[in-house]
Design brief:
Length: 552
C-alpha cells in the first residue's frame, strides 16, 4: 500500500484568490486524499475474484471522497456519450473493475493527525454532506419519488466547495470561522468577505468543471434558492397560517415539487445542526421538513435524529463530534475547534495561500482641514437651498407634469438631497431584481474612481442591502451604532464609510425595490443630526410615493 500522506501542501506562486472564478481555477485540479482505511478496503475488494458490483457500490457509497472520485471518473467517460451518471451503482458499473483498479492506484491516502483542526474540519464537512445525502434519499423514498439515487449524489456534492477549501485554503476558512463565531457575521456574508464569493458559487463552478449532472448544478445554483420571504412563507405554511392567499400557496407548492428542493433542504438542515440542534433556524427548518413529509413535529424530530445517527454510524469521522452525538449533550454556545490553533496556524501559513483582497481602485481622498470653527460638533441644521428642497418635495408629492419617467423622479430626488438639503456626497445604487444585483449608477460629490462609484453586490448574499430591498427602511449610521451595522455589510463597503455619519434608504415601486440611496456629509464632514435624517427620509419617502404613483 502507498505510504500515507498528509493533506497536500503547496508552495506554488498564485495570484490573489478572490472571487468565484479565481477559486474555481485554483481548486479544480487539486487532489482529494482518501482515508487510508477506505482505500485499503477498496483495493482488497478489487483484488478478489468473488467481488461483485454491489460490494463495490456499498463501499463507494459509504465514503464521500471515494464517491467523488468514482463519479468524476464515470462522468468523464459518459461525457463522450452526452449522458450523465444517475447513481453510485451506475458509476461503478460504468467504470468496471479494470478502471477502478487503475483509479485506486492514483488515489492518495490521508494520514490522520488527531491534533489537526484542518483535518477535523475537512472530515466534519464530509460527514455533514453524507448526513444531508442520507436525509434527502430517505425523504425521496418516503414520498415515493423517482431519481432517488440521483438526488443522493446531488445532495452529497452540494458542499464540495467546503471540502476543497478546508483542504487547500485553511487560512481563508480560519478567517471565515472567526467572522462567524467571534464577530457574529452571517455565514454567507462572511464567506463573501473573505473569499470574494460564496461557498455555493464555488461548489457550482467545480461541478460544472467536473461535468456533474444538471440536477447537481441546479441544486447548487444560487438563483434556484428561495428568498428569505419565500422561506418565511414556507414556515407559515408549515404552521397552517391562514394569512397565505391562494397564489402564495400555489407558488409554495410549485417550489416544493422542484427536484432540487429536497437537496437544498437536506443540506440546510445538515449545515444548521452542525452549529447546534437547538437554534431557532433549526426549529423552523424542522417545521418545513415536517410539512414537506406530512409528519407531525415529534415524528419529524424522531426521523431526523434517527437518520443523523444512521449517517454517523455509516461514515464516522475520527476525532470529530458528530451532530448525532451532540443531540445527547447539554446545549452550549462554545463551538469546539472552529478555528486553527496558533501552532497549526504558524505551520500552515508557510504552505497555504494567505488571505488577501484585491486593492481598491482608489484610496480614500486625503483628509482636508475643516473650515468650520472648532466649536462645531455637528453639521449646521440649515438647508443649503430651502427653496430647492421644498420645490422638489412638492413635485414628488404631487403629480408634476415633467416627471414622465422613473429616472426623472430619481434625478429630482438627487437634486433635492444635494442642492436643497446640502448633503455633500450622494450615491445612487440601482437594484436589478432579475439578476439580484445592486450596482452604483451615479455619484455626486466624490471622484469617479472612488470604490462607491463602481460598487456592486449580489443581493442574494445576506446583508443590510438585502434587508433594505425586502422592505422600505431608512438607516442612520453613527459612531454609536456603526459596529452593529458594519456586521451586516461586506468589508469592501464598510471599509469605505466616512469617519462620521451616513444615511441609507431604499426606494420602492409596486414591483419592489428600485434603488438604494447613500448620502453623507463628506469624508471629513461633521456628524449629521436628526434635522438631516428626518428630511432625508422625508424626501426619499416622497420619491417612493411618486414611483408607485407612476407604476411599473
Amino acid at each position: 500500500m502507498t505510504e500515507p500522506t498528509h493533506i497536500q501542501e503547496t508552495e506554488e506562486e498564485i495570484s490573489i484568490l478572490y472571487g468565484a472564478q479565481a477559486w474555481i481555477d485554483f481548486l479544480q485540479d487539486k487532489p482529494f486524499p482518501v482515508r487510508a482505511s477506505s482505500l485499503k478496503r477498496l483495493k482488497t475488494l478489487l483484488s478478489k475474484d468473488s467481488t461483485m458490483i454491489s460490494h463495490l457500490t456499498t463501499l463507494v457509497r459509504s465514503d464521500p471522497i471515494l464517491c467523488l472520485h468514482v463519479v468524476r471518473a464515470a462522468e468523464t467517460k459518459h461525457a463522450a456519450k452526452g449522458s450523465h451518471v444517475t447513481s453510485v451503482e451506475h458509476a461503478v458499473s460504468s467504470l468496471g473493475i479494470d478502471s477502478l483498479v487503475h483509479l485506486s492506484q492514483t488515489l492518495q491516502p490521508i494520514k490522520l493527525k488527531s491534533s489537526s483542526v484542518q483535518q477535523k474540519q475537512y472530515l466534519r464537512m464530509l460527514a455533514n454532506s453524507h448526513h444531508a445525502a442520507i436525509q434527502a434519499r430517505t425523504w425521496q423514498q418516503m414520498k415515493r419519488l423517482p431519481f432517488v439515487e440521483e438526488v443522493f449524489i446531488a445532495s452529497l456534492f452540494y458542499s464540495i466547495g467546503l471540502w476543497a477549501l478546508w483542504l487547500n485554503a485553511p487560512l481563508h476558512m480560519h478567517q471565515v470561522r472567526i467572522k462567524i463565531w467571534e464577530e457574529e457575521i452571517d455565514p454567507t456574508l462572511a464567506e463573501h468577505d473573505i473569499l470574494g464569493c460564496t461557498m455555493q458559487q464555488i461548489s457550482m463552478g467545480l461541478s460544472e468543471k467536473w461535468g456533474f449532472s444538471p440536477l447537481t448544478i441546479q441544486a447548487q445554483d444560487p438563483d434556484t434558492s428561495p428568498s428569505k420571504g419565500m422561506l418565511t412563507k414556507l414556515h407559515q405554511r408549515a404552521l397552517g397560517d391562514p394569512r397565505l392567499n391562494e397564489q402564495e400557496i400555489r407558488d409554495l407548492n410549485h417550489l416544493t415539487q422542484e427536484r432540487h428542493f429536497p437537496i437544498k433542504l437536506a443540506n440546510w438542515l445538515s449545515l444548521i445542526v452542525s452549529r447546534g440542534w437547538r437554534t431557532t433556524r433549526n426549529i423552523k427548518t424542522t417545521d418545513i421538513i415536517g410539512d414537506y413529509l406530512g409528519l407531525e413535529t415529534d415524528q419529524t424530530l424522531a426521523l431526523l435524529h434517527k437518520l443523523c445517527a444512521d449517517a454517523s454510524r455509516e461514515y464516522h469521522a475520527p476525532g470529530t463530534l458528530a451532530p448525532a452525538a451532540e443531540m445527547l449533550m447539554i446545549a452550549s454556545s462554545y463551538p469546539s475547534n472552529y478555528k486553527l490553533g496558533d501552532r497549526e496556524l504558524a505551520v500552515l501559513t508557510r504552505t497555504y495561500p494567505i488571505p488577501e483582497k484585491p486593492k481598491p481602485k482608489s484610496k480614500k481622498l486625503p483628509k482636508k482641514l475643516i473650515p468650520q470653527a472648532t466649536t462645531l460638533t455637528h453639521m449646521p441644521e440649515i438647508f443649503r437651498e430651502q427653496m430647492i428642497y421644498t420645490q422638489v418635495a412638492e413635485r414628488l408629492l404631487k403629480d408634476y407634469h415633467l416627471y414622465t419617467k422613473h429616472s426623472h423622479i430619481i434625478q429630482g430626488l438627487m437634486q433635492g438631497l444635494g442642492k436643497g438639503l446640502g448633503l455633500q456626497r450622494i450615491v445612487l445604487n440601482l437594484v436589478n431584481s432579475k439578476s439580484h444585483k445592486m450596482k452604483a449608477a451615479q455619484v455626486v460629490g466624490m471622484e469617479k474612481d472612488h470604490p462607491f462609484a463602481s460598487y456592486e453586490i449580489d443581493l442574494q448574499i445576506p446583508s443590510i442591502f438585502k434587508k433594505l430591498c425586502d422592505k422600505p427602511a431608512c438607516l442612520w449610521i453613527t459612531a454609536a451604532n456603526r459596529q452593529q451595522y458594519t456586521k451586516l455589510m461586506p468589508d469592501a463597503y464598510s471599509e469605505q464609510l466616512p469617519k462620521h455619519d451616513c444615511l441609507l434608504m431604499s426606494l420602492f415601486r409596486d414591483s419592489g425595490a428600485i434603488a438604494i440611496i447613500y448620502a453623507d456629509a463628506g469624508e471629513n464632514g461633521l456628524p449629521l443630526t436628526a434635522f438631516h435624517h428626518k428630511r432625508f427620509r422625508y424626501l426619499c419617502s416622497a420619491a417612493t410615493l411618486a414611483l408607485k404613483r407612476m407604476g411599473n
